Amino acid sequence: MISINLGLLEKTVVLFSICILFYSTHGDGKPLGKRAINEVQLMHNLGVHKHAELRQDWLQMKLREIHTASEKNNEGKTGLLSDIIPNLKDLNPREAEDIIAVLEKLMNPS
Fold this sequence. Notes:
Order of helices and strands: HHHHH
Radius of gyration: 41 Å
Strand content: under 5%
Helix content: 55-70%
Distance between the termini: 115 Å
Largest sheet: none
Shape: rod-shaped
Number of helices: 5
């Protein structure tokens, strides 16, 4: 064993250093005192803000996935009547009369 001759001042400094080292490593990152109320409120507001931001990001992602029927139906159509109504040449007279009757009923609901 090595013999070290230390004076009273050196022993005090070594002991004090060991105590500081011991207490600084066993703090576990916990605050030494209680948090102030404004600090607690700030942390709460930060959590609420982060939650709202995550919710908005999720909603934006879901809105990008939505495809409306009007967008699908209007692609490539010019809006002309011949494009909207299918070819009517293949209808027999009875089907044409039924279609006209339905259209007249829609035009005059009374």
